[in-house]
Amino acid sequence: MSTKKVTVKDIARQAGLSIGTVDRVMHNRSGVAEESRRKVMEAMEELGYTLNTNASLLANKKHYHICCLLPSFGSGEYWELVDKAIESAEKDAVSYNISIDTLTYDQFSREDFVAAIEKLKANLPQAVIIAPIYRDETIELSRYLKEKGIPLVFIDSKVSEADYLAYYGIPMWESGYLAASLLLGDEPPQSIVNFRIERGGGIADNPTLARRHGFTDYVASNLPELRIYNEFLRPYDKAHNFALMDKFFGEHPDIRHIVTFNSRVHLIADYIRERGIKGLRLVGFDILDQNIEAVRSGVVKYLIVQRTQVQLRRGVNALAEWLAFGTTPPLRDNFMPMDILIKENINFYSEMYKDH
Amino acid sequence: MSTKKVTVKDIARQAGLSIGTVDRVMHNRSGVAEESRRKVMEAMEELGYTLNTNASLLANKKHYHICCLLPSFGSGEYWELVDKAIESAEKDAVSYNISIDTLTYDQFSREDFVAAIEKLKANLPQAVIIAPIYRDETIELSRYLKEKGIPLVFIDSKVSEADYLAYYGIPMWESGYLAASLLLGDEPPQSIVNFRIERGGGIADNPTLARRHGFTDYVASNLPELRIYNEFLRPYDKAHNFALMDKFFGEHPDIRHIVTFNSRVHLIADYIRERGIKGLRLVGFDILDQNIEAVRSGVVKYLIVQRTQVQLRRGVNALAEWLAFGTTPPLRDNFMPMDILIKENINFYSEMYKDH
DNA sequence: TCTTATTTCGTGTACGTACACGAAGATTTC
DNA sequence: GAAATCTTCGTGTACGTACACGAAATAAGA
Asked: Do B272 and B281 meet the contact criterion of CB atoms below 8 Å apart?
């Protein structure tokens, strides 16, 4: 087995043609006779040509622009993690001559989502990454992009009916099912409470809906007698939340199992800590700093977490390869692991997020 | 902020010198006046130079050779996972002109380890990756390599007293502690059993020792009354193992909690399945195919798993950057996450291992 | 037949870095 | 003070690919 790498020059010699012709064949450009094209293809096959990505990227003078659309966020919130992951992924993409711009929208306002899409269109990006919340508008956007030949990658959640290059994220339904098995698997209680977030306007296509379905499906098939209470918190109204929880737990002192499907389990953890309540079993999602603290202190028993960094790295990478080499990712739907964090393994998990 | 990238040519112009001189400064080569060196450094600082890795790698005609030393393995065994991870990491390293050779040794024979080290030395590699089992011999090897200027990376476990460039693996002690909390955290039993592997020769410096210490330390501080039985299985002697377990469970029908610290929990899972025993709680390590099956079927409750692929990718990457650019990894000891797998999240975990 | 399109292909340059070679200049030696 | 040595630096070429430009070769039009 020869250790030397096969280059276009070798292909050209083998095919009895010039480098230029080989190059044209490789890039599916016009101006090459069918006979020559065949010769080149055969030579490539025979010699086992592989592209030298370093040389290719070096010679490629184009500059690509990716536009990323996701919900706006405050400090310490879930979407900030995603934003950081984008920055991290952008670093890996510099060798592709790629830069990434992020646009945000108010996730509670459909109008704002539409406005953000218009901004995105005005930006004329070569590729788009989107964390979708609104189904119909996302489908329409995907049609627009398809028409323009602009590739679209979904992260975090996807809209199956849309036209997209790839999706990287956890399986939503299964993540709810997992939460149920962690919360209810050992000693099933009689009733539990699900703390949700108050949303303005009837947003039926919220991704955490699928997660709740996974949870309730587990309950339906394993614990049909279980009673699930639903209570609604407000993201930024601590007084309201505390009053609500005081009332709830006052009326239901027997309830010891709590679940949230959004990333704000720390709202409840804070309450439990301040009130000094013991013996509750709490399951939540996403690796926010405040959630990490809640796990460390033992208030939250299980935290279900997705690998945001990996998802974005792979999403950006899929677009980079598409832009630079025209290659399509092997899988369209990439369901990524759901990690279970408890007090004893959370430290080494969060440490990893510091560099890679 | 100028979007153009700064090149050596820009540095040369700014410093009033030639590209050659700039190049010499960058590679710490001789033949440049102190005055000029200073000018170049200043220009680099001022313009914010960053190396174009594509161009650098393309121009670098050297070919590097990494030698990887790890225990020999049969099909479906733990070290086969590591071997596969090496192959996967090698693919990422082709752009660095790096190839990897793997040497294996009988992990139960110190002599064979020494012999493998001699073979490694004869190979004259530019870098070494090792999964160490024998402490003293590893330290000696690290001295030899240090003297030759050959970098050494530990994976899987490390020998702290050795001289090494970096380590990528899980924290062994903590992984045992985690196992204890998963097995014993909810309803502590009176006694449990730890199935171990019979080893020839008194190998005290086996890495799983630290794992067992983590487990027993948890027990000592949380459940000092707990009785731990130790039983010894043989890797390839099913009849012996079954007889042993028949005898053990016959004499101790009350024991329902089982732990293993090696990767062979499937030996016990097979027994449990064949005997049709119910109600046991089993915790094991490592994502072997047979272990995955044991989790799926519900026999093994928790499987603690490390990200072998990531560990090797990062290990190889650290060496690649050292060889090609002379850069040292930011952290020497990289403790990587311990993942907890149960029936409800193992599918999407193992799926990930197919491509990336 | 000569010009004008059209197809097909080869040559040359660029990308940014690495390094060999050799030319100036500075320093030493006798 | 000339030759020899050493220090310091600039030039040139190579890495493998991308693409513009223009040259042949062929076909079409008059």
From this structure: no
